[in-house]
Amino acid sequence: MKTHPCYSTAPHVVRSVNRRDTRRGSMLVQCVVIMMMFSMLMTIAGTALFRMFRQQVNLSASITQSAVLARLAREFRNDAHVATEAKLVGNAGHEIVLRNGDEIVTWAAGPQGLTRTTRKGQTTDAGVPETTRLIDVEIHFEVMSAPASGLSRVRMTLNPVADARFHVLTPTTVDAAVGTTRRFEKPADAS
Questions:
Q1: Whole-model pTM above 0.85?
Q2: pLDDT digits (tens, 9 = 90+) for 128-184
Q3: CB atoms within 10 A of CB 170
Q4: Angle, CA 153 vertex, CA 152 and CA 157 arms, to 5°
Q5: Could you give the number of structural domains in the chain?
Q6: Is 136 a member of any domain?
Q7: CA–CA distance from 21 to each of 31, 132, 154, 178 (Å)?
Q8: Which of 58, 78, 108, 124 is an S-S bond match for 95, by CB 3.0 to 4.6 Å?
Q9: In angstroms, what CA-CA distances link 169 with 20, 54, 63, 132?
């Protein structure tokens, strides 16, 4: 009775069976190595992607803050240039009143953000919704007078809060002269 060649005791057949088993084992090791390399690449790619998203969030916040700050500075300077008088409310320097005749513009900084209120006669208008988006910022106002020239200046200082989520704002100072638009107006009797 003949036995199957795989089960024969011939040495050449036994070697071929062992080679086949060795190849299967090496293919398994190769698959495990490839899977480990793929998982390391995915970890590196995931970390890089997370850092890129975090940088994008910080950059977006920085761009938004810059645009808001530019608009805030423009509105504050316009209000100061039109005003005939500027004074601080209280000693803390968190509120300033700019007056031009019967029009009163109040800038106030508080925990809810920055507010700008305009009152002309009996009409009150609260505005500046864009500037309330300034995040993690401490705002302080000053009024400086120069008695020799008769001009006064106002200053708004914006500083980032120490425990801020985003450190996108550098300390910023906005200076404006009070009443400069009056200097360029024509006198009433000139034609």
A1: no
A2: 554 445 666 788 888 888 766 667 889 988 887 766 555 556 788 888 888 776 544
A3: 10
A4: 155
A5: 1
A6: yes
A7: 16, 72, 87, 92
A8: 108
A9: 67, 17, 10, 15
Asked if residue 131 belongs to a domain, the reply is yes
Q: Which element (helix H / strand E) includes 98?
A: strand 95-100
One-letter amino acid at 170 equals: T
Domain, as residue range, for 139: 75-184
Whether 171 maps to a domain, the answer reads yes
With a pLDDT cut of 90, the percent of the chain lying above it is: 14
Contacts of 112 (CB under 8 A, 6+ apart): 132
> In this predicted structure, what is the pLDDT of residue 184?
46
- Supply 58's token pair: 């910080």
How far is the C-alpha of 61 from the C-alpha of 169, rounded, in Å?
9
State how beta strands 151-160 and 172-177 pair: antiparallel
Residue 121 inside a domain? The answer is: yes
Give the Cα separation of 85 and 62 in Å (integer).
34
